[in-house]
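re: ur question from yesterday

yeah so i grabbed the chain u mentioned. its 219 aa long if i counted rite. heres the sequnce exactly as i have it in my notes:
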Amino acid sequence: LFADDTALWASSNTTTSLNSRLQQSIDAFESWCKSWKLKLQPSKTELAHFTVHPRRTFKNPINVKIEDTIIKPSDSTRYLGIIIDKRLNWRSHIHHIESKIAGRISLLKFLNRTAYEPNDKIMLNIFKSIARTIIIYGYPILLTANDKIWEILQIMQDKAIRAALGLPIYTSVEYIHQITNIPKIKEYAVTILQRYIQTATSNNDVVLQNNLQEIFNKL
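ran it thru and got these structure tokens back, copy pasting raw so excuse formatting
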């Protein structure tokens, strides 16, 4: 549950207990907001219920109340740019990325086609700036996803690189990475993760270090 960039999380073995815990947290947060003259907006508040049985119908379904408005669970919700679905299969997020990257790929094709003398180095830098940043966004979370998700992300990267360099669609993935020296997208994500673990360690940020290390250990 969140309002703007604020999130509340609760867990329990029963939906009754979960409802109670979450409502208590909401009431406390609502009281805090009132003390600081802040106002929650129920219409912009979303609720996601994660369970190992996403298709199950519960006798006491999850719902909470904010300012007399009942908030019911959504199939998916967005938090900090990541679309999280109740089954945690990341398909909704991937579909969002696919629609977002399509325009960037078209732009790369246009730039390559209209340039008087296309410069591969410049085009690859543009690819990294406007396309790869979109594909890789939220990588610490996506690294917990299955390989199928990363195969789709890899296809997006391959399309974007082909567009940037004006390569035909049948150009092999191996050849693309050989001539560009650009790592595959999951390898790149793991490299960034390791880099941030080192940064967190250097900054003595134990919480961040442990969280990132936990993700890395599961790879």
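noticed a couple things. The helical segments are 15-35, 91-114, 120-135, 139-142, 147-165, 173-180, 185-202, 206-217. also The chain has two domains: 15-74, 90-218.
anyway ttyl
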